[in-house]
Amino acid sequence: MRTSQFLISTLKEDPKEAAVESHRLMLRAGMIRQIASGVYTWLPTGMRVLSKVINIVREEMNKTGALEIAMPMVQPADLWKESGRYEKYGPELCRFKDRKQNEFCLGPTHEEVVTDIARREVKSARQLPLCLYQIQNKFRDEIRPRFGVMRGREFLMKDAYSFHTDKESLAKTYQDMYDAYSRVFTRMGLEFRPVEADTGSIGGNHSHEFQALAEAGEDTIAWSDGSNYAANIEMAEALAPEYDREPCADAYSEVATPGCHTVDEAAKALGVESEKVLKSLIVHGNKKEDGKHELVMICLRGNHELNEVKAIKIDGINDPLEMATEEEIAEFTGAHTGSLGPVGFKGRILVDRTADKMSNFACGANKTGFHLINVNWDRDVPNYEVFDLRNVEEGDKSPDGKGTLHLRKGIEVGQVFMLGTKYSEAMKCTVKDENGKDVPMIMGCYGIGVTRAIAAVIEQHHDDRGIIWPESIAPFKVAIIAIKPSKSQIVKDTAEQLYKQLLQAGVEVIYDDRDERPGVMFADMELMGIPHIVTIGEKSLNDGNIEYKLRKTGEKENIQASNALDIILSKLEK
Ligand code: ATP
Ligand code: MG
């Protein structure tokens, strides 16, 4: 490709809207442009990368025996009503009506549509297992689209769905997908970890996420230094402490803590560490007959964070997790949020495992501006239930008992689920078992965030000059920069010849024939992350050389002009 025939859309200035490196560089390198919040056009440079990633995904999916299909983005609401998700999915699901007032939605995921296909097309158990996949745009009306294509509203996903008669077959396909995902992300040059994951609104009971390690990641993963244990922090179990409570001291007493709203403020006022203060939150429980919610107190050690995913898994807690309002709290306890505590609380009390081991602690008095000190469980709070409710922290013991946990930030680039029969049961997607009885198919589903994974690659592979593409997904493998070809016939001829030779050898090459200042051309090729850059100038040519630079390391060398093709070919990854 000649730059004169290509659309180079590089930007000199840093776009203001970009908060992370990948977003900044995708805009600056001319890969993407936003047309509405979270909705992007892929320009030619970006599209070349996207096509490569799509090819890798497709090749690896096909290797597993999965069959490619194309499902529509527009989906009838009726299917979603059958599965029960039309009401449940919330505002991320973009719902609309056609001119005849039929209800539709834009697919955020395709379990319903694919289950409908399977129930109509699969006539016999002998046709199973079956795995169908597509690479297709999804729409999710994300509450906070951000970081460019990392969290877009319209984005490209590879989604696959498998159908089985038995769990063993599901387990095999799950493993095949897991292995295929590992190959996809390895081929893309990502450093990633598969981690145990929550199943969220998709459902199911067993799941792994593939997390690309990067500081810009929105997820936190916990991994053990003594075993293979790795999990999304949403799932990572915090073990109960091994120590016992200390003996109770004197009876509790009330202390004025005017103006203290947070645990830290209360700890300071009381002259203790925040670890000695109980954090008490009030959340919504089940809805009562009067339409109001029951109020449930959650107690954590003062310096611990509530884990919402763990909380909503407890029976009787509203999903999604909702904090009680100031008004509800005032009405129920008579106090402000900063002065809450379990002593005398009239509702259900859920206590985290570590908070359960606290003794002689401080907590709010359920009286605005007052705390209690020397409070003890059982003696002062007779009724409470103990659960794992907090986020694990750096240094916690690994839940498998082996090693210590550490935390890293991750970008979720894929997720695999064992779904079970959630959709097949609701939508009557059945096959006959050996006794002739109709039984629901057992399902798995598997997603890769194709566009997000590209942003993740950039987060891991860039420097202050731009993107550093792994060769496997670079928009071009080689860039040829000709210095002032209009002024030097030999430069022009050499560049043209090398360009043609590389094309003939099947190498994806971009030939910068713009006749711009060398610095401008070089900056663009580096920004666009082209792995191998050769510069052809008259001075070096007079010595029989052209200049070669490896983008990844910045190493430069002079290579023989007469032998340039072979030398460059030898530098390309096989
Ligand atoms: P997240 O927790 O980040 O919102 P998710 O768990 O809801 O994602 P899945 O339903 O598992 O997403 O979708 C499969 C894959 O699609 C994800 O692993 C992710 O890589 C990608 N993905 C999900 N939401 C987005 C988005 N808003 N923008 C870009 N990619 C996304
Ligand atoms: Mg997910």
What does this structure look like?
Homodimer. This is Proline--tRNA ligase. One of its GO terms (molecular function) is proline-tRNA ligase activity. The protein is an alpha+beta fold and about 575 residues long. The chain has three domains: about 30-210 and about 415-460, 2-Layer Sandwich (BirA Bifunctional Protein, domain 2); about 255-385, YbaK protein; about 470-570, 3-Layer(aba) Sandwich (Rossmann fold), CATH 3.40.50.800. The chain is built from 15 helices and 30 strands. The strands form eight sheets. Strands 3, 7, 8, 9, 10, 11, 12, 20 and 23 form a nine-stranded mixed β-sheet that branches. Helix 1 crosses helix 11 and helix 2 packs antiparallel against helix 6 (about 165-185). The longest helix is centred in the first third of the chain and has 21 residues, at about 165-185. It is globular. The relative contact order is 0.14. The mean pLDDT is about 95.
